[in-house]
Amino acid sequence: MYEEDIKGSIAHSKMLSKQDIIGKDEQQKIEGGLFQILDEIKYGEFIFDIKDEDIHMSIEKRLIGLIGEVGGKLHTARSRNDQIALDIRMYLKKETITIKEILIELLDSLVEIAVKNKEIIMPGYTHMQRAQPILFSHHILAYYEMFKRDLDRLEDSYKRLDVMPLGASALAGTTYNIDRHFVAAELEFSKVTKNSLDTVSDRDFIIELNFIISMISMHMSRLSEEVIMWSTSEFSFVNLDDSYSTGSSIMPQKKNPDIAELIRGKTGRIFGNLMGILTVMKGLPLAYNKDTQEDKEGIFDSIDTIKISLVIFKEMLVTMKVNKKNMMKGIENGFINATDVADYLAKKGLPFREAHRIVGELVVYCEINKKRLSELKLEEFKGFNDLFEVDINKKISIEECVNGRKSYGGTGIESVERQIKDAKEFLKN
Predict the structure, then answer these.
(1) CA-to-CA distance for 14 and 24, rounded, in angstroms?
(2) Strand pairing report for 238-239 and 321-322
(3) Which listed site, 17, 89, 120, 186, has its alpha carbon 20 to 30 Å from 242?
(4) Which residues belong to the active site?
(5) pTM value?
(6) Domain ranges of the chain
(7) pLDDT (tens digit per residue) in 253-311
């Protein structure tokens, strides 16, 4: 966070000069020295010394070496406690924006996948049992909704990140006539913290970002799990591009979904970082404690992990081929249109509970006679209830079962097209 540290120090020095706490010429020397140090670090010319307590001390020592004792005035009216709080907030603001941008790219890709495969029908599942036929696009758009909520969470959490802490000093504020709002404006913070004790001990914003990253990772893991199943020979619903899968070291026939598995595995690591910071913070009294130094390693790791995971996850999905034929085969067995038979009777006035019972008996009949519901003749249907008419087979066709679900948010093609339209409009903004 050297860049954030130096930018924060420059803003602090400007405020000290504005408030006549240091002279203008002193501020200019400090600012010039800090810019030189920034370049030295960027180009690998800065020498870090293990004898220094931390990067803040390294920079300050180098500044004094460059411009003399006036460099020591930089630390007037601040503590490393509020300095650290400033640096991490600035860093997380920047990284939150980056994660948002990558997440939006994933959302856009999910919509593209839905459009490309809009009318492909697949079995929908509950309890990992075939339940009802749905559009594959509807399934993909379910994940769009999940990741969109993650985007909403990032945007909401940014408001709590965007609070400037410098000026709280060690824990109680300062006796100097500082202007915290000036520093906030310089560093593009929308507001300043209101309680100095809370300011230096608060790590809620780190916990919150850890949680949001965990949610994003969990959503990726869920879809990865489905991709892993879909790519098995038992399902063969999708075929992963060779760039995002590998062969076995001993079994030449295998094609392993390694990227999906790695993303699923990384979720445990990210969850661990969240639990780590929660555990660190659970017993800390006010105000600053050295324990909070443990706040950074986990969030740094989670940020790095989620950024690369999102990028490669998106590429795995957009290069994935959908096997329409095998998805339709998955619908053929399992009485996936049974609910539609019950709905057929209910729409003719039969109480749904009674219709449900009759369809249950129909399913047993089909199992005994090794038939599908769609293969039954009208007289067989009528053997269970006289309300069945000649249109029953059309009404329970797979296409009718899917596209008949026109309810808002349903899997019917009209509903899915509306979802796609809404998603595209959202992504334009």
Answers:
(1) 8
(2) antiparallel
(3) 120
(4) 127, 248
(5) 0.93
(6) 2-76, 81-329, 332-428
(7) 678 999 999 999 999 999 999 999 999 999 999 999 999 999 999 999 999 999 999 99
